[in-house]
Design goal:
By secondary structure, the chain is an alpha/beta fold. It folds into two domains: 296 residues, Alpha-Beta Barrel (TIM Barrel), CATH 3.20.20.540; 55 residues, no CATH class. 50% of the residues lie in helices and 9% in strands. It contains 19 helices and ten strands. The strands form two sheets. Strands 3-4-5-6-7-8-9-10 form an eight-stranded parallel barrel, surrounded by seven helices. Strands 1-2 form a two-stranded antiparallel sheet. Strand 4, helix 5 and strand 5 form a beta-alpha-beta unit. Helix 8 packs antiparallel against helix 12, helix 14 runs parallel beside helix 15 and helix 16 runs antiparallel to helix 17. The chain is globular.
């Protein structure tokens, strides 16, 4: 392999296997894809040690991608349950899976996930650092943190979330601008606590070159995390969030100089009217880097329905520049999601992503809807089910209340307007 990373390959005019796989599944030419990878506007997370990976691109001009979160926790740590979630995520056509395990034999689970997943896999190494060493956070060393990062990369992880922009300056913004929900990022809160207790700079910021060297060695995409993302509408687009985003923009430039692929993680809870400004700020400050948004959740009052509040925000965000949606399930803020929650969250996010792709004119996105409408116009139920984003649920709903006339549905029956006007 005579290139270090996908950016390095694009700069050298090398068309990689992963690039070829992206062009097969997207309406983008070889030349345009390579140009945008070189510019950092598209990334293809593809660790050299993830052997069965099919390349998926994230970024400008491509279909909006969707990620699923899963993993074992101290209170719910059934290894087999989480592997079943992995299989279901692939069945429901996720584009990525993030392992957020915080308990038990995390390495065993991570390696199994990489082994069976054909889609890109991400992690947050700081979670595992706490679980692995079992130390009081104050006593963790910089080397502890970097050893876990390298281990994840060696295990085949395609993208890692690192909160390198949560600097001492950004932490001061939190202290000087009181928040309703303070810090809601787990990784962000761990680093904030470590920095405060040790009166030291964030090791990932201070030793960013060391981080880049590890990422370059395995071609791991750096997902620069938003440790100060808002956890409530009241805290959205505040000084701490924007301070961190400014730092992420500067780190993006440093990563690109070293041919390391970068995407930026974005806000969590954001009012509808602030979503578009947030998209514009990220793209402007981070040089068009792919934007990975966590929701955004557009109201704080719907526990049990946050897959809906998130889908609303996700569709607006993606229609206005976001490239990658992290799913949110009905269990958000309440408990670890089960398989049913996972399905509801993933399908909701896929709907949001597709709706956004139509709005931003992604070539071919509307074709799916046109085929569905043609089938409805013919009352062709088999084709309608085959085209459904969730065929099983569509079939079950229809079968639960079949009309006398099997050509129509029980909503209109003999008054079906399509039947009467045919």
């Amino acid at each position: 392999m005579n290139y270090a990373t996908q950016i390095d390959a694009a700069n050298k005019g090398i068309f990689t296997k992963e690039m070829e796989e992206v062009t097969k599944n997207e309406s983008i030419s070889k030349e345009e894809l390579m140009e945008k990878i070189s510019a950092g506007k598209i990334v293809i997370p593809a660790n050299k040690n993830h052997k069965n990976l099919v390349g998926i691109g994230i970024g400008e001009g491509l279909r909006t991608k969707v990620n699923v979160n899963l993993g074992v926790s101290e209170d719910k740590n059934n290894f087999n349950d989480e592997i079943e979630k992995v299989k279901k995520s692939l069945e429901y056509k996720t584009d990525a899976i993030m392992d957020l395990s915080t308990f038990g034999d995390t390495k065993k689970f991570r390696k199994k996930l990489v082994e069976i997943s054909e889609v890109m896999v991400g992690t947050v190494p700081m979670y595992d650092a706490v679980a692995k060493y079992g130390k009081i956070i104050k006593n963790m060393t910089s080397d502890d943190m970097f050893k876990v990062v390298e281990e994840h990369c060696e295990d085949g992880i395609d993208f890692i979330t690192i909160h390198a922009g949560l600097t001492k300056i950004a932490a001061e913004r939190v202290d000087k601008n009181p928040r309703l929900t303070h810090i809601v990022s787990r990784g962000g809160s761990i680093l904030y606590e470590w920095m405060k207790l040790n009166d030291k700079e964030n090791p990932f910021y201070e030793n960013f070159d060391r981080l880049l060297e590890i990422c370059k060695r395995y071609d791991v995409t750096l997902s620069l995390g938003d440790g100060l993302r808002p956890g409530s509408l009241k805290d959205a687009t505040d000084a701490p969030q924007i301070q961190e985003l400014i730092m992420l923009g500067e780190l993006t430039k440093e990563a690109r100089k070293e041919n390391v692929q970068v995407m930026i993680e974005g806000p969590g809870h954001v009012p509808l009217n602030e979503i578009i400004p947030n998209m514009l700020l990220e793209k402007k400050l981070c040089g068009g880097a792919p934007f990975y948004v966590l929701g955004p959740i557009v109201t704080d009052i719907a526990p049990g329905y946050d897959h809906i509040t998130s889908a609303i925000g996700g569709s607006i965000a993606a229609a206005n520049g976001a490239d990658f949606l992290c799913f949110v399930t009905p269990a958000e803020h309440l408990r670890l999601p089960d398989i049913n929650d996972l399905k509801e969250g993933l399908i909701s996010s896929r709907i949001a992503a597709h709706a956004a792709d139509i709005a931003k004119g992604i070539k071919g996105a509307l074709d799916w809807d046109i085929k569905m409408s043609e089938a409805r116009g013919k009352l062709d139920w088999k084709t309608m089910f085959d085209l459904s984003i969730d065929p099983k649920k569509a079939r079950e709903f229809r079968a639960s209340a079949m009309p006398v006339d099997k050509n129509v549905c029980s909503m209109c029956g003999d008054l079906c307007p399509i039947k009467r006007t045919k």
